[in-house]
Amino acid sequence: MFAETDQEREKRKRELEELRAEVKTLKYTIDNHKQEEELAKLKYEGELRNEKRRAEEDFKKMQVGIFLSGLEGLSMELLLGD
Question: pLDDT 10s digit of each residue in the chain, 82 long?
Fold first, then answer.
């Protein structure tokens, strides 16, 4: 049977503690990465909503401009007659 010396036991204990610390560090790194990923996703979604809103506003302004341009043309026709 294998008899473990105190020195070997202490060495194994230190190695186990180091591994536990490494696992905790890796868990922290993973959690931190997940949070950064979520923040990036939220930022992207916010920017996308803003761009969509701006595009809709620009489109509405363009529609109003076209409508007003058509009214001006009609007004000129009415003023000048046939």
Answer: 567 898 999 999 999 999 999 999 999 999 999 999 999 999 999 999 999 999 999 999 999 999 888 888 777 777 777 6
Alpha-carbon gap, residue 63 to 12, rounded angstroms: 76
- Paired tokens of 63: 């529609």
pTM of the entire predicted model: 0.60
Q: Render the chain in DSSP notation, one character per residue.
A: -PPPPHHHHHHHHHHHHHHHHHHHHHHHHHHHHHHHHHHHHHHHHHHHHHHHHHHHHHHHHHHHHHHHHHHHHHHHHHHH--
Per the structure block, which two tokens stand in for 28? 């922290």
64/59 Cα distance (integer angstroms) = 9
